[in-house]
Specification:
Elements (H helix, E strand, L loop, with lengths): L8 H10 L7 H17 L1 H23 L2 E4 L4 H10 L2 H9 L4 E4 L5 H21 L6 H12 L1 H4 L3 E4 L3 H14 L4 E4 L5 H11 L12 E4 L14 E4 L6 H9 L12 E4 L4 H7 L1 H16 L12 H10 L14 H14 L1 H8 L5 E6 L6 E8 L2 E7 L5 E4 L1 H8 L14 H15 L5 H6 L4 H12 L8 H16 L4 H12 L8 H11 L20 E10 L2
Parallel strand pairs: 3-5, 3-6, 4-5, 6-7, 8-12
Antiparallel strand pairs: 1-2, 9-10, 9-12, 10-11
Helix pairs in contact: 1-6, 2-3, 3-6, 13-15, 15-16, 20-21, 20-22, 22-23
Length: 553
């Protein structure tokens, strides 16, 4: 879809948003700008609400700063403000104890910080005041026109996805005027009754089939785990940062037993001016193109009917955050692009890489890890990296850490393999064997060497006292326990987590202290279901893929 360019007022608003870069916090200013433009592209309604929320947050933050206290939290700052307003200091303290927030004294901040915040607050108020007179939404008007005139959209069940819950509600109210009683809304706030309606009207496998609704509006909550293949049309009302989500959305309707020969996807792309600000289209297309370049056309849509290797490789080479975090500088995507560039620009080198022999090894200078060896192992679908050093210990690395160590430029000189390479390789092999052999867990536990087993024991005790936990908190603990029992968490992460838990001393009996410590050391991204986190009980022989010896001075 292409829709009318916004009125000239938006150009001025764009210029104002450009100024929203707090001088002492440039990255945060950039993030705010991207978030606001992204919300503007989602819907005018979502943009207006975001500006109002920013205003309220700024006002509350400045008020607390003037009182001499500042709360900082990546995810829960709005919740903290709500609790502060209601006077629930105990709930605020629980968030701090859980490691979800920190409290600082007002005098710890530079005086200019307050001035910067007041500067941003004035800009936001100006944007809000300018926006009060906006009543026409050209994107929505174009969408309603397409729904009424496009033959594909007229005769089909429609699945409309948006990243914003506010946009979803806004669309529901608008489209219900044109299609009374035929529109269904499902978000994270919807209950089981609405979910059952979704299945009855959009799941071809549902035992009960109804035809009460032909338009379903949803957020990402329905992009996984639900069959919607009574429809063959997916509409992306806004583009997600991570194109994996686009494929997951289409995967809801492109099932093996779909009755349709064609699957249709319609996308709203950002306007030219907005895209200049956030580069959303290039980011999404670049990631998808890199994926397709490596895998070929068979990977355009991820469904059960495709080779499983395509799905696994895509999950392995894209981060859980993907493009969701505009401030993220490094991800698996960086290395995927490197592979793509070699394939396009140096096919002879790409061919040589494809035919590298098993157990390939090389050496280079690395000042941070002198006289060490990093080894890449595989067993079936499980892949792990280990680094052994002069201390004669082997530690597991996550993919990004290993890639940083392995990364080499064309001008890097190849070094001579160290004399201790075979001993270091044996250390890495032994560590890989231990991490992929379930029966070794108990003996290691008896020797006091297995951090994962010790953490699991602490977690089981903690889960016996869950009265103070929310459902999400309890689910997080159970995810951690499951990953530990699968051997899916990196050894170093487990070791650091156990050390932090042990340092709690008597406070280890406090479930909230345990939860807070775990949140600090085991982020949610490590609990995502990507390839390197598969359990160790997999079939196949253990293989050494490659090794890199790291020489010192």
């Amino acid at each position: 879809f292409r829709y009318a360019r916004y009125m000239p007022l938006l150009y001025y608003i764009g210029a104002k948003i450009d100024q929203l870069e707090v001088q002492s916090q440039k990255n945060m200013g950039r993030f705010m700008k991207i978030l606001l433009v992204k919300r503007l592209e989602s819907s005018f309604f979502a943009f207006r609400n975001s500006v109002n929320r920013f205003l309220k947050s700024y006002e509350l933050f400045l008020r607390e700063l003037s009182r001499g206290r500042v709360y900082v939290s990546a995810k829960h700052i709005n919740k903290i403000f709500e609790l502060v307003e209601s006077g629930d200091d105990e709930a605020v303290q629980r968030l701090i104890d859980e490691g979800r927030a920190e409290q600082f004294k007002g005098q710890e901040f530079r005086p200019e910080f307050k001035q910067d915040l007041e500067h941003d607050l004035n800009l936001l108020r100006e944007i809000r005041d300018m926006w009060q007179g906006i009543r026409r939404d050209p994107k929505l008007l174009r969408f309603r026109h397409e729904l009424g005139t496009n033959p594909v959209l007229q005769k089909s069940h429609l699945i409309i996805f948006t990243e914003s819950k506010e946009t979803a509600g806004y669309l529901y109210e608008s489209l219900s005027q044109d299609h009374p009683g035929r529109v269904l809304l499902f978000t994270g706030d919807s209950g089981e009754v609405v979910r059952q309606k979704v299945l009855e009207n959009f799941d071809a496998r549902s035992r009960i089939q109804k035809n009460d609704h032909h338009i379903l509006i949803s957020t990402e909550v329905l992009s996984e785990g639900v069959n919607l293949h009574r429809s063959n049309v997916v509409i992306n009302y806004d583009l997600p940062w991570n194109p994996t989500r686009m494929m997951q959305r289409v995967g809801r309707i492109n099932r093996i037993d779909t009755p349709f020969d064609l699957i249709h996807t319609f996308n709203f792309f950002p306007t030219t001016r907005s895209n200049d600000q956030i580069k959303l289209r290039e980011a999404a297309e670049g990631k998808i193109n890199a994926f397709l370049t490596l895998l070929g056309g068979d990977a355009e849509l991820l469904t059960e009917g495709e080779p499983i290797g395509s799905h696994e490789l895509f999950n392995r080479l894209t981060t859980s955050k993907g493009l969701e975090d505009p401030q993220e500088e490094t991800s698996e995507l960086k290395y995927l692009h490197a592979i793509r560039d070699i394939r396009e620009n140096d096919p002879a080198l790409f061919e040589r890489i494809k035919h590298l022999p098993g157990k390939a090894r090389s050496a280079k200078h690395h000042p941070d890890y002198p006289d060490s060896l990093v080894t890449y192992f595989r067993r079936g679908k499980l892949q792990k990296f280990f680094l052994a050093g002069p201390d004669r210990q082997s530690a597991e690395l996550d993919f990004i850490s290993a890639a940083h160590v392995l990364e080499s430029g064309p001008d890097d000189e190849k070094q001579v393999l160290g004399q201790d390479i075979y001993h270091l390789l044996d250390l890495n092999k032994q560590a890989f064997i231990e991490s992929t052999t379930p029966e070794l867990a108990e003996p290691m536990k008896k020797r006091g060497r297995d951090s994962a087993s010790d953490i699991s024991r602490i977690l089981r005790a903690t889960l016996k006292n869950t009265a103070r936990f929310t459902d999400d908190q309890e689910m997080y603990l159970r995810k951690v326990l499951a990953r530990l029992e699968q051997g899916a968490l990196p050894k170093q992460t487990a070791k650091n987590t156990l050390k932090a838990l042990t340092s709690l001393g008597e406070e280890l009996l406090d479930p909230m202290k345990v939860l807070g410590t775990l949140h600090k050391h085991i982020p949610e991204r490590l609990l995502k279901s990507h390839l390197a986190e598969q359990g160790p009980a997999v079939s196949g022989r253990r293989e050494v893929i490659l090794s890199m010896y790291l020489g010192g001075d």
